[in-house]
Amino acid sequence: MWFIKILKVRPAFPLLAVKPRFLTSQANISEKSIDLYQQQYERDAWTNLTPKIVSHLDRNLHLRHNHPLCTIRKKIVKYFYGAYLSPRGNPLFSVYDNLPPVVTTEQNFDNLLIPKDHPSRAKSDCYYINKDHLLRAHTTAHQVELIQAGLDNFLVVGDVYRRDEIDGTHYPVFHQMDGVRIIHQDKLFERTPELKVFETSYKTHLSQDTSAISACIDQQKQPCHTLEAVKLCEHEMKRTLVGMVKELFGDKIQYRWVETYFPFTQPSWELEIYFNNNWLEILGCGITRNEILERSGVDNSIA
Question: Under a CB-based contact definition with an 8 Å cutoff, are residues 36 and 186 in contact?
Fold first, then answer.
């Protein structure tokens, strides 16, 4: 399976644990508690959510007709709908663009193998409601719950919140789109069944082990995966994303791939485009850490 952060149509009924956001946040901040989306959260030493940030919760710019963010969202969704079709001609990717932005620290960090001491967890980086809840710092926070719901090709679009310094490319409230594609052994090597997704010596991790796993820095592949599986997924992923970039910016756009590190993918890359005489990062992507799939109940697959 592969994963993109940039930004099969299935009906909504499998998503028993995934609730859409209410029309309004119905926010209320008092000295002892914060009310958001019909839930009350007790304030504590971690609380740093401000009324100014709360005022952005109901804007839903990516869903407003004719807003630039809405236009980009529609273009990307249309591209994926056309790029991946079922044998019956239906889009493979389902889209979730209205999930509530309040998540748990488990969703935002633990499920994605982000270490307890990682700087992205700091109060200086996130907007915490309390020690256990925050406004999502990335749409990747919904990845595990959607995989557990049985989805294998999906896009998640939404507003995200980080305590960034404001400049030409940063603002405390911005938008992301995550894409996940899970490919089973039988589909990946449909024509060459002698090839495998996993190394024969691979042993699964304990799915109930939620401790932070040491960083994987081998940019070639994860120890569990065969090189053939990783290279095949890498080729498909990069081809798809370059096609998307050309769809958005034109065939003549200059681009380059840069190796990077994310706690939840290995290997990992960023895609940059040449804009205003500078290279500008527009997305990150990679092969999802297999531990995440294991914990989500997915086996014999790569993402």
Answer: no
Domain harbouring 73, CATH code: 3.30.930.10
Q: Is there a domain that residue 263 lies in? A: no
**What is the structure's pLDDT at 201?**
82
User: Model pTM?
Assistant: 0.88
Q: Identify the three-state secondary structure at position 174.
A: strand
Q: For residue range 206-223, what is the model confidence (pLDDT) as tens digits?
A: 444 444 444 445 678 999
Look at residue 242 and tell me if it is in a domain.
yes
Report how far apart, in Å, the C-alpha atoms of 285 and of each of 28, 56, 273 are: 37, 27, 15
> For residue 77, what are the domain limits?
2-194+231-249
Type and span of the H or E element at 145: helix 143-148
Does 27 fall in a domain? Answer: yes
* Listed residue (76, 57, 68) closest to 172, CA to CA: 57
φ/ψ of 49, rounded to 5, equals -70, 130
